[in-house]
Design a protein that fits this description.
Oligomer: single chain
Radius of gyration: 22 Å
Largest sheet: 5 strands, antiparallel
Strand order of the largest sheet: 20-21-22-23-29
Distance between the termini: 74 Å
Strand content: over 45%
Helix content: under 10%
Mean pLDDT: 75
Length: 376
């Protein structure tokens, strides 16, 4: 009887909790997908990706609402005005159309059509990549620096590399058994593809890194049994170094590793008190930047390993980092929907964009938690 009463009490508490949750979020005012002039949001919309335009005049930011709807916003760096808001159910989501069943293999073949959108004009461009057997819907994609190669991960974690000009598949590979791809990047030359990921829970050393030669369509090198989950990967502008961001399963510790892009040999390692959720090289190759899951931002000199600056923002984690083409600034995208533009040399804040409310704050800012380390 006591057990029965306890179950009834738990059910009542669960119902009350659901009612309170619904009332709290149903009344919250969130910027809608079809609007760019909404009032201040009460729920943060994470900014999960960021990039400068080639001329440095625009910042393109990928944002995500609490309802899991995604969109791209574009901002003028100099006038601090929002240029466009492109709502998308899934950013860069590929569409699988025209499924055909092959009676010989009893497999399904799909025509893969990729859709890209001009972030300023909103004009859409489609890439018809032809028929491909045994392909499942794609989870995420990465272009190379010139936009003529595309790497994609399908729901079975298989890696596909497409030549968009010739409409052909260059590579199709499976990751290690029971593993998940977290990030991809091309070499600037387009000759290599690198991926990082993690193995399923229970593995004592879950992280891995893989490199492929695209022209030869064969593996180049691999690193298995990494101590932590491998979360992010970027390559330097001269194609010589790879930046690897890792984190433990609780995101309470992480590492930055610099690896030789040709061999995978470790060149530099720095320990963090949170997961390294974003990494970026400066365009001149002098600095490596790391953002962590607790809002920390770090910069080191690549040649000496000396700390340039260390900043701590207690509000939210940093999901992505982009360096301006003129080499003067870095922009960070954070979980609270903010984009912060900082000096590349000192880390001091120059501008601040609030993507979740479609409003911009700018002017002189102070970072009370900033700590700069200068070399003597």
């Amino acid at each position: 009887m006591n057990a029965l009463n306890l179950c009834k009490t738990l059910k009542v508490l669960i119902v009350l909790a659901l009612i309170m949750f619904t009332k709290k979020y149903a009344s919250a005012e969130v910027l809608g997908d079809e609007s760019i002039d909404g009032a201040e949001s009460k729920i943060a919309r994470p900014a999960f990706a960021i990039a400068y335009s080639a001329d440095g005049k625009l910042l393109i930011v990928g944002v995500q609402k609490w309802t899991n709807t995604q969109a791209v916003t574009t901002w003028d760096v100099h006038t601090h005005e929002q240029i466009s808001f492109i709502p998308r159910q899934q950013i860069d989501r590929s569409h699988l159309l025209g499924g055909l069943r092959s009676p010989e293999t009893k497999a399904i073949r799909f025509t893969v059509v990729m859709e890209a959108t001009d972030v300023v004009t909103g004009q859409k461009v489609q890439y018809d990549l032809g028929l491909h057997p045994n392909m499942t819907p794609l989870k995420f994609e990465r272009f190379n620096s010139t936009g003529d190669l595309l790497a994609a991960i399908d729901k079975e974690q298989q890696i596909h590399v497409f030549d968009l000009k010739d409409r052909r598949e260059l590579l199709s590979r499976l990751p290690p058994p029971r593993s998940y791809i977290q990030d991809l990047t091309f070499s600037k030359s387009g000759d290599f593809l690198y991926c990082v990921g993690e193995k399923e829970a229970g593995e004592s050393k879950p992280g891995f890194v893989r490199a492929w030669k695209l022209k030869e369509r064969e593996p180049s090198w691999s690193l298995d049994a990494q101590e932590q989950r491998c979360l992010r990967i970027k390559i330097s502008t001269d194609d010589t170094l790879i930046a690897l961001g890792t984190g433990d399963r609780l995101f309470q510790a992480g590492e930055l590793k610099l690896l030789d892009s040709q061999t995978g040999k470790e060149r530099l390692k720095k320990s963090l008190s949170a997961a390294a959720t974003s990494v970026a090289f400066s365009l001149d190759g002098r600095f490596i930047f790391v953002g962590d899951s607790k809002g920390g931002l770090f910069a080191w000199k690549i040649q000496t390993g000396a700390l340039v600056f260390e900043l701590h923002d207690e509000k939210s984690g940093i999901n992505d980092i982009s360096c301006s083409p003129d080499g003067r600034s870095i922009a960070t995208a954070a979980d609270d929907g903010s984009v912060t533009i900082r000096s590349i040399e000192t880390g001091k804040i120059v501008d601040h964009i609030v993507t979740s409310s479609a409003k911009i704050e700018f002017g002189d800012k102070s970072d009370k938690n900033q700590r700069e380390t200068k070399e003597e």
